[in-house]
Design brief:
The protein has helices at 89-102, 132-139, 171-178, 211-221, 234-237, 241-255, 260-268, 270-276, 279-298, 313-326; strands at 3-7, 11-16, 34-36, 40-47, 53-57, 69-74, 79-83, 144-147, 163-166, 188-192, 198-202, 229-233, 302-306. It is an alpha+beta fold and 328 residues long. A 4-stranded antiparallel beta sheet has the order 5-4-6-7, covered by helices on one side.
Length: 328
């Protein structure tokens, strides 16, 4: 098929010269042949006509020579190949350079199409609702409340304006607690049980541990009221972010195969490469840890997931815990 490629801050869009009538648009933002830039993991330059060679391009770099074609691997295991055979000399290079520049913006606010309230009309003020009240209702958790202490981002710029905290913790105490942790992010509730079990995400401490800080944390989680509190240090269980990204890259290379000869070669060493990627070990750790947490919540315990800024592996594990409960 032939068409024209367009690059925006949101997507790589292919407009076919002959419209495909079978492709029905199911998304208001993305057309059937659109690729969100945030889903692109790697871009390769294709050279050669008989035996094609792939060269991985560094994101943020520039290409100065003519580009014959590109091979794109996405995070959802899809891959795309585009040829610039019938394009002008500079057109393929311009598309590639635009992609390399926009795929990984250095600032989050440069990411296009942040979600706002679905039913907000143009010209009105966006709704502040975050959905956490619905999560609390669904879990039927007791003794927790919705806090709007961060409504004007005065506590943390990386937390939502609304989040759930223990019912006995005032907004004033919450503000004092925030300064103790990385990113000024106080511990937040993410799931619970009707009989008092609770799951919290807590960043690493930003200050030296002390008896006074231990007392503040015990008061926050209700340990003084007789609750059993289990802290799980996820930084000790999961690999570093760089190692995890490398493992994921190996998984994509293993499954995003274009040529038949390449598939035959990989087939003979598939299981050894899968094992050596370390991905299955990480998945196993996440499932095992989530199951342990579910068991503790069923015993009405409070579980605290500790890692980094509290927005990495802790969110992964918490999401698995919620899925396991909702499956019931």
């Amino acid at each position: 098929m032939t068409g024209t490629l367009f690059v925006t801050t949101l997507k790589l869009s292919l407009k076919l010269h002959i419209e495909d009538e079978q492709k029905i648009r199911k998304n208001k933002i993305l057309a059937p042949w659109d690729i969100p830039l945030s889903s692109i993991f790697a871009i390769y330059e294709i050279t050669g006509e008989g035996v094609e060679k792939k060269k991985r391009l560094s994101l943020g770099s520039n290409v100065s020579s003519k580009v014959e074609g590109i091979f794109i691997i996405c995070k959802n295991f899809r891959f795309y190949k585009f040829s610039f055979k019938f394009a002008k000399i500079d057109e393929g290079r311009n598309v590639v350079n635009a992609l390399l520049h926009h795929v990984r913006p250095k600032k989050n606010n440069l990411l296009f199409a942040f979600e706002q309230h679905i039913y907000t009309s143009l010209g009105s003020t966006p709704s502040v609702k975050s959905g956490w009240d619905e999560v609390r209702r669904k879990s039927e958790a007791q003794n927790v409340r919705l806090s709007r202490a961060n409504e004007n981002w005065q506590i943390s710029h990386s937390l939502p304006q609304e989040f759930i905290v223990p019912g006995h913790i005032t907004d004033e105490k919450l503000g004092k607690m925030s300064g103790l942790f990385v990113g000024s992010r106080p511990p937040v509730w993410v799931w619970g049980t009707p009989r008092g079990g609770g799951l919290y995400l807590q960043p690493n401490l930003n200050v030296q541990p002390s008896l006074q800080i231990d007392q503040l944390r015990d008061d926050f989680y209700g340990a003084r009221l007789g609750k059993i509190v289990k802290e799980i240090d996820l930084d000790r269980l999961f690999p570093l972010q760089t190692a995890l990204e490398e493992s994921f890259s190996l998984m994509l290379d293993l499954h995003c195969i274009e040529a038949e000869k390449e598939a035959e070669k990989i087939d003979t060493e598939y299981f050894s490469r899968l094992e050596n990627s370390g991905w299955l070990k990480t998945v196993s750790c996440a499932l095992r840890t989530s199951q342990e947490i579910c068991d503790r919540l069923l015993r009405d315990e409070t579980v605290v997931l500790i890692e980094g800024e509290g927005r990495g592996s802790s969110i992964l594990v918490a999401s698995l815990v919620e899925l396991m409960y909702e499956g019931e």
